[in-house]
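Researcher: Next entry: 3-hydroxyacyl-CoA dehydrogenase (Motiliproteus coralliicola).
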Amino acid sequence: MSVFNYQKDNDGIVTITMDMTGPVNAMNAEYSDAMGATLERLEAEQGLSGVIFASAKKTFFAGGDLKELLKVEPGSEAEYFAKIETEKGWLRRLEKLPVPVVAAINGAALGGGFEICLGCNHRIALNSPAVQIGLPEVTLGLLPGAGGVVRLTSLLGLEKALPLLLEGKKLKANKALSSGLVHELVDSDEQLLTRARSWILENKDNEEAAVQPWDRKGFKIPGGNLNSPAVAQAAQFAPYMLMQKTRGLLPAPERILETAVEAVKLDFDAALRVETRNFVSLVVSPEAKNMISAFFFQMNQVNGGANRPSQIAPTQVNKVGVIGAGMMGQGIANVSAMAGIEVVLKDVSLAAAEKGKSYTEKLLDKAIARGRADEAKKAAVLGLITATDQDEDLAGCDLIVEAVFEKVELKHQIIRDSESQLAAGGVWGSNTSTLPITRLAEACDKPENFIGIHFFSPVDKMPLVELICGEQTSDETLAKAFDYVRQIRKTPIVVNDHLGFFTSRTFGSQLFEAAQMVAEGLHPVRIDNLGKAIGMPVGPLTVHDEVSQQLTVQIDATQTAMGKRQTNAVERPEGIALLNQMVGELDRKGRHHGGGYFEYSDNGKALWQPLLERFHRPELSVSDQDIKDRLLFSSVIESLRCLEEGVLRSVADGNIGSILGIGAPVWTGGYLQFINTYGLQAFIDRCDELASLYGERFKAPAIVGEKLEAGQTFQ
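Model: Predicted structure:
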């Protein structure tokens, strides 16, 4: 029996109900067999008056088989090109049928799923929150390869199609309707097929209903072709704007733009072949393999709870206490209340707590101004937050998160003052970025209920939370903390206790390496620019100004006093000395303290010239590639150490944590995935080169050689 259920009714309408093996419909070998056979049957069908494509799953169609895509290697391009052309031919045959074809979209139709819909003459979607429509392939380093770029450009025109394609937007049903991606909406599943049949019957005498717009005589692409001034301008300037955004590191947006422009210039079938060629070139690229591995497989692994104790039943936080209403605390209160959780926000004074609550009010006011919230939503969210200066108001909290200054004694005192307010079985979380969790838990009566919950700033925007298990943290506590992070719609990675954990330690290595290069005499602006050239959102020195050099020096001093300095600081003595000099002697403590490496004014930022005068050595000769690799490899090597030492519990946590938390370039797929496509032996060799020039800190950790010898990669 085919996974495409074929039923013909008395009106000659054939309904194809896709019900493939597994939880979703996808473009895999099973699809290939079913779609090919279905097209042959439809083309031979006598008395055919129309076709409906529907789904037996909760989603309409999920897209391509990404596991299969990862198996396609360089050297097999010609064979894969032929395969894709065959599969695209089915959709071309579908839209060439002499009868109207309708897509009845009951759930998400993304990627290949929406490409099937675009091959239909009419698209009807269920008006439901479960429906998402779009072509998000660019987020995985790919382009829509089953006709999506060419058909969407032909449907909407270049100017309207490019934002959807280049940003990989997923639209809700009503937005898909207003954007022209679907033709109409219905309110129930029952209406979906009924309306599809009605539309076919209404158009039985309308020959044009069975012809795609681009196949009609005299067809002109909406918005015009390249002779149109607006389209010509978009085609001319888009590459420059794209290069500014991607810095040439992400080939997928470039190939999408090229394909869309060709769709405007060439005839339809020629443009489809260009699309296939560009799609195949992306499939075999390291960038696509890295991004598919990270953003699909490993993201699902992390969010799916691979490191959550499976024996613990799901939990939910109903009331959370947040101690400290500063930048981090007010953000934690905000995301908790936005998730519908009752929040008690405590600070040393009621005024400070109320100020922290007002942060949520400001965010909601902005949302209202943008049409994303209303006054009722604002009142409901603010009603969930209680500002206080009294410990007693924390009574009955399922979870308390302290977000105060990074001082062990202060955190210990807060624990002693407030731990008793937790509900039975409640969890205490510390929003520390560096202090050892096991050490902080010493002040707890129940250290098994203590865990690190490391948020990133700004909390309302950053999607990652790092959960840190101390030596006594129980499985129940980890499970509850994990569930809370998912409840507030963030991604949790799980690590073990160590100075700096994973993210701060890895992030710090890059900042220390940048400081080391300034101390050696390299030009600071060159360092920053080359940091951006490898895909950092902003340069490492600019980032350090935002984080503040003072905080870095304070953390290093605290760790020194504890007798546990981070290795990445010890390995870069000149860089640490420079930071101490900047903070102690030169009063350059960071942007929010008056300036750091750069000066800041209403006119923007400029390099602080005394820095150049004191440290720059114009005669120093270091290649751009060495500077880029020193920045990138410093974080990669530190990630490897975290894996080797058991700080990271999985490769997936390392990759997702590095991208979502500390700005690892997306093209790498994360700092550990980067090694897989760079090549393990090539990585070891490059590390040896860097070590010979810049110090033993660049030696590849032993785990790389062990993986290489075993014939393994980092998975």
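Model: Note for the record: The chain has a mean pLDDT of 96.
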